[in-house]
User: Fold these one by one.
Assistant:
Number 1:
Amino acid sequence: MGHLLKVDALYKSYGKEPVLEDFNMQADRGEIIGLVGENGAGKSTLLRIIATLNRPTDGEVYIDEQSYGKNYKKLRRKIGYVPQEIELWEELSVIENMRFFEKLSHENRSVPELKNLLSELHLEKYDTKVSRLSGGMKRKLNLAISLIHEPELLLLDEPTSGIDLKSRIEIGKFLKGLAGKGALIIYTSHDMTEIRELCDRTIFIGKDPFYKNILTDG
Ligand SMILES: Nc1ncnc2c1ncn2[C@@H]1O[C@H](COP(=O)(O)OP(=O)(O)OP(=O)(O)O)[C@@H](O)[C@H]1O
């Protein structure tokens, strides 16, 4: 069987200068991959293209050997995406947010199932209004929402930025568990210690060799 994800000769420009130029990668189920590069290197752009939220200028993305082309609506169901910015209903409670996004997803999940997912992430304040949660808890909730439809491919844009150490460790353990069950996780972070601890391999993106050197120097 082919790779779960294949990115082939991807090119993206917003203006004259390309952000991504002939970018290629393959990845398989069970991997945790760290995307590393300077600010503005194109990490979020790449994740958004893989998440079907942004279109490449040229090149193609495949999931299970099916190209995004005509299949992107179907393939989108296999993908979970957590953006850098937190996107939640502040005036609703934790469980109300989960129920809202469950209705938007293509899967039916019961309230006990949703609560179970929250508790796996150590987020048991089901009835607390989101506006009263800490930044770290909001990030966990965003992550839980992206997992409602049990995606095979999970794309995380700086999921632990601004998160305390305990939550960071909890999220790391949780992600390793997900990968152990066969999910592919692609992850951006500026924290090299975290990347080294969590990721099976790293992919350098961008022009600044500083990052490439950090990775190869060990
Ligand atoms: N919608 C857009 N329109 C125009 N330019 C954009 C757009 N989105 C991103 N860019 C530009 O593309 C480049 C790559 O941005 P991107 O957010 O993908 O980088 P990044 O590696 O995720 O950066 P960071 O580490 O700061 O999050 C930047 O120069 C950015 O200004």
Number 2:
Amino acid sequence: MDSEDCLPEGGKLPELKLDARQAQGFISFFKKLPKDPRAIRFFDRRDYYTAHGENATFIAKTYYHTMTALRQLGGNSDGISSVSVSRAMFETIARNLLLDRTDHTLELYEGSGSSWRLTKSGTPGNIGSFEDILFANNDMQYSPVTVALFPVFREGQLYVALSFVDMTNRKLGLAEFPEDSRFTNVESALVALGCKECLLPADFEKSIDLQPLQDAISNCSILLTERKKAEFKSRDLVQDLGRIIRGSVEPVRDLLSQFDYALGTLGALVSYAELLADDTNYGNYTIEKFNLDCYMRLDSAAVRALNIVEGKTDVNKNFSLFGLMNRTCTAGMGKRLLNKWLKQPLIDVNEINNRLDMVQAFAEDPELRQGLRQQLKRISDIDRLTHALRKKSANLQPVVKLYQSCSRIPYIKGVLQQYNGQFSTSVMTRFLSSLEEWLTENRYGRFANLVETAIDLGQVDNGEYRISPLYSSDLAVLKDELSEVENHINNLHMHTATDLDLSVDKQLKLEKGPFGHVFRISKKDEQKVRKKLTTNYIIIETRKDGVKFTSAKLKKLGDQYQSLLGDYTSCQKKIVDNVVQVSCTFSEVFENFAAIISELDVLQSFADLAISCPVPYVRPDITTSEEGDIILQGSRHPCVEAQDGVNFIPNDCTLVRGKSWFQIITGPNMGGKSTFIRQVGVNVLMAQVGSFVPCDQASISVRDCIFARVGAGDCQLRGVSTFMQEMLETASILKGASEKSLIIIDELGRGTSTYDGFGLAWAICEHLVEVTRAPTLFATHFHELTALANKNGDQHQHVPDLGIANYHVGAHIDPSSRKLTMLYKVEPGSCDQSFGIHVAEFANFPEAVIALAKSKAEELEDFTSAPNLSGEPSDEVGSKRKRVFSPDDVTRGAARARLLLEDFSALPLDEVDGSKATEMVAKLKSDFEKDAASNPWLQQFL
Ligand SMILES: Nc1ncnc2c1ncn2[C@@H]1O[C@H](COP(=O)(O)OP(=O)(O)OP(=O)(O)O)[C@@H](O)[C@H]1O
């Protein structure tokens, strides 16, 4: 942790001002609060907030980075440690707790003495009551989702029932699916939904091991909330949903009849999120069946490997795909949709092509793109405004902002209509006709009429949102009176200017502010009129920007104005409520606009990125997962390419069925292997999201899943060894992947001894090639793995080709200068020379050490002049090292290594403790070593 303290400048925190009696009262209240280790509780003390007890220590440590921020409240024996935070600091903490972290909940209390009331509470999955604070100055980038899960055994098969609630978009959903013991489907669903909080039954039967499920939840950084099993019940569910779901109850009943256990999870969610307690929810929710098979599946490892989401420590927005691809213009709506799309890549070729058509249309027509961006920039967050309207406290501001945003829509329509390129029919069907339908007299027209007649739009520029005087005769009278007082004030302004010999407006300004009507002059002018000012006027404030003053007359008129404005406000209150209520009935129109606008926003954002990159992106050709190959010519990693100072070397990737469907990539450290294999995953993901890709040419056979095992992750912190984590991730790949997936594996087997690591890597490769048959990119430092390509069939003997191909990333060592240069070029063939000693030479190791290293390497590596097994051409630097083994030894050895893997994956490691697990693994290892003794090929690894 950063040791430097982060106290405000001068080290001063808001002072905790409580006398002994008040302190005593508060302490007795605080101590009675129910224990909840996850809750961070704040107490609103008007100008500042406080937190106490362990929360105070947490805040001092986490946010001030010093314990000196702590104060003691009350006497030593029953006192509590306390910390105070300013309003601004409170906002920072609230954002961190609810938007960045997922290990706490937030509670806010209001009151005094010993009487306090919980007024707001939020969790990462339910941020509703803190929205005003969280998004006062920031766009809302995602809509958090809370999920409830219930695993169950049925006829010997594990199933999971799932339901979710998205409280920002007022959406519910439910699903039931078969599951494996590692809960891989749940993990994909949690990723696709953008889940932030997950409810699980607490007192769960022991027959199902929930540990892997809890691991999946924690891998996705989701807050786990345990609820009593009794809460997972569906009694009264139809009735409850009937109240909150829009439209008739019949379709809801039909939908629910398709599920068994998911109903209980939905019941738990509805009660946890207290959806019935808020009557603004009534009739405003929608419900759907969540179908996991509609999208490409991604687990948390793939999300990390492909850098899909922004990281907290990213120094540059282009580090993540979201950061790079976000060129949206609307306030929040486009960002939220992009976030969603990136986690839900499509698998239907037509749907993908529909998006690509639009991106191409926008990419090819700069006027269309620019015109759209100009309009989209002026659109506020329609979803959040609609949300605000539904809250009872709503005022006219969201109504006006909705009106202003929606009034851009005819212009957007105009821009789209101008387009007459090859996709004009699609633009018409996808956007124009829906916009036209919603813009009709009957729908948006009625709302626009209401606003234009009811609201005094002329005052909006002054920051006043009021009902038009023409709307009611009472208001008209008040408006006349207000105008009269305003005239008097203006006259007084002129008289005062004459009296002080100052020009109106230029020198003597009239302002409306927290002090009512006041005059303001510059400090320079004040010197000229100081005498008169002090005798005839009342000075209110002297600041850098001038001197504010008033007079008895202005004060009187200002008071009159305020009082009339008060009358106007209370007279219009009923009408305001009515206008807000009627506007609320147009929610569906706004939601539809919001959906169309956000889609346009993301698609134009894709086009903008594709066109404005130094090397433009291209439209990929998409084929179904059953046909076609994955061919990326001149492909780049979009995030690495976008970093300053990187001169990215493009590479081709040709994953061809039966030829190079399984690629082993070798090469020196830092040679670009990992970047290459990730970039293939990123390109495929981008294409299926509907974006152009950073290639010269691309054709992609749709993938239903990307599995990635790249890097060890941070699991050591949770007590899982690197090796175990690696094996667990690989086990999920072996179980879950199919011919339709894409597998990316980097440096598998690094976490254990070379021998075990190699044996496992070989066996895993064999399994992937022969059983899984998924296109795979396997980057490895085990050069010997390249011998796998010998398993490829022989056309002459009519043995089908397994499609194993070797590739390597090259490096060049200049013989005279000994300079090592990474070429970052992926070439066919294996690279099995070691660059380690060259690197050491380059680092000026003593000559004696280098010489010894070389001779030891020769001893160990058994250099031979025999033709190499892979049949690859020799490289420019160094000689290739190859040992000769009989094909029989290699095949039998590999089969034994594969058996080791199978035995390993069959071990019930989830059910036994650490020492038992070590014992089991040791036994497997010793059996393996015994068998390997008679196999020269395996022996080399022992
Ligand atoms: N095609 C490329 N063009 C330019 N620079 C590249 C390219 N590929 C990788 N690099 C640069 O090289 C660095 C190392 O790449 P990478 O991590 O992919 O190597 P690696 O072979 O996987 O290394 P290791 O085996 O040590 O894990 C990257 O951080 C990147 O800056």
